[in-house]
Automatic annotation (TrEMBL):
Listed name of the protein: tRNA (N6-threonylcarbamoyladenosine(37)-N6)-methyltransferase TrmO
GO molecular function, one term: methyltransferase activity
Positions of the TsaA-like domain: 6-137
Species this chain originates from: Methanoliparum thermophilum
TM annotation in the entry: none
GO terms, biological process: methylation
Keyword entries, A-Z: Methyltransferase, S-adenosyl-L-methionine, Transferase
Lineage: Archaea, Methanobacteriati, Methanobacteriota, Candidatus Methanoliparia, Candidatus Methanoliparales
PROSITE patterns: TSAA_2
Protein family per UniProt: Belongs to the tRNA methyltransferase O family.
Amino acid sequence: MTMITLKPIGVLHSRVTRLEEVPFQWMISSLEGDIEIFEEYTEGLQGIEDLDYIVVIFFFHKSTKEYSLIQKPPWSDKMRGVFSICSPLRPNPIGLSVVRLLSVKDNILHVKNIDMVDGTPILDIKPYIPLKKDNEPLNSINL
């Protein structure tokens, strides 16, 4: 299989500097932080201010290289497969969070609901597109 190389497009800045302080999931977090997009990617932010929520794909840079395919998530007493939970200990330490976009100033996105530690490399950002009950995308933004 071909080796994959990813280059961060930015970095998260927050007051959360210790892993123990990070909420275990974005859905329960009220923490705020700033995503700094690197200069060579700032043009890609055009129109992002129209979004209420964004999907942030990031690298678990503080995750150990050791992982198990079966783990116990913090919210359960039951052991589960790593692909059915959000553990940072995984074969490819990539995370995904949906965060509220509070403001945009130049290359800085001020966001809420972060579950990442200060210095987290940001790999990509995508618009959050919620689903209606019948699994059809809501047309709340012009894609």
